[in-house]
């Protein structure tokens, strides 16, 4: 977490816990992440999600890999309250990833829209690399393109949005080999840009991102299903609101 920014507003995790399973973006991101695990990681015995929030992603991993040992960590105890309720048989702990000290502990570590919140992102990547077993995989997603920066990022306590080259350089500097990368939320970039460039009068209300008509929510999710189908054919999308990267420890 950035030392210069306030914590997430009180009630953020409660709001997410109620909305994630219904919202097109969270549902679509889960499909992309689970596909990446299946296609580019394969079988694993242990999995840690850093910054697991309410454990919405981890629940999807548990359903897809019921025999794996799953672990979740989160900087904010409020998030862990909902995570433990969602997955009572998973081991959760409060953790600041900048001081994570585990060595050769996990087959796979996931950090999904996490490191953009942290000033010391390179420290975190080194810590995650050290915690991986030899041959283990790091799977990360981050917001992409600083030209998409807006009040949404500020409210979400982001420190930055990444370029692909920057993310690759930082992951490799942590001692990992990048195996796969692609953008996603690509087909929706024009709409995303228009929405984010719109000037908001007064205080930004994040609920507007969630309180959209049902038909629009379904339509956006359909577009994301189409995008995933393109990715599955081998197309690596060059631009997109988010970046996916899979790297392995030699």
From TrEMBL:
Transmembrane annotation, as ranges: none
Gene Ontology MF annotations: methyltransferase activity
Record has Transferase as a keyword: yes
Keyword set, alphabetical order: Methyltransferase, Transferase
Origin superkingdom: Bacteria
Coiled-coil stretches: none
GO aspect biological process, one term: methylation
PANTHER family tied to this protein: METHYLTRANSFERASE TYPE 11 (PTHR43861:SF6), TRANS-ACONITATE 2-METHYLTRANSFERASE-RELATED (PTHR43861)
Protein name (Swiss-Prot/TrEMBL): SAM-dependent methyltransferase
Species of origin: Pseudomonas frederiksbergensis
């Amino acid at each position: 977490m950035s030392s210069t920014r306030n914590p997430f507003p009180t009630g953020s995790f409660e709001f997410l816990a109620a909305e994630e399973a219904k919202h097109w973006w969270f549902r679509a991101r889960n499909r992309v992440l689970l596909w990446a695990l299946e296609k580019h990681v394969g079988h694993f015995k242990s999995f840690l999600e850093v910054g697991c929030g309410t454990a919405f992603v981890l629940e999807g991993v548990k359903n897809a890999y019921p025999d794996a040992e799953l672990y979740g960590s989160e900087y904010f105890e409020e998030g862990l309250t909902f995570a433990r309720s969602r997955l009572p048989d998973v081991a959760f702990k409060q953790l600041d990833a900048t001081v994570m000290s585990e060595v050769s502990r996990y087959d796979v570590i996931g950090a999904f829209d996490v490191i953009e919140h942290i000033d010391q992102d390179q420290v975190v990547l080194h810590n995650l690399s050290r915690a991986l077993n030899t041959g283990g995989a790091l799977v990360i997603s981050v917001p992409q393109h600083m030209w998409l920066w807006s009040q949404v990022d500020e409210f979400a306590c982001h420190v930055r949005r990444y370029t692909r080259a920057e993310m690759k350089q930082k992951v490799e500097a942590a001692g990992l080999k990048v195996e796969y990368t692609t953008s996603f939320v690509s087909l929706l970039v024009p709409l995303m840009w228009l929405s984010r460039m719109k000037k908001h009068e007064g205080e930004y209300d994040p609920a507007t991102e969630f309180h959209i008509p049902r038909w629009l929510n379904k339509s956006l999710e359909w577009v994301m299903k189409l995008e995933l189908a393109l990715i599955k054919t081998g197309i690596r999308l060059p631009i997109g609101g988010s970046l996916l990267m899979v790297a392995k420890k030699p």
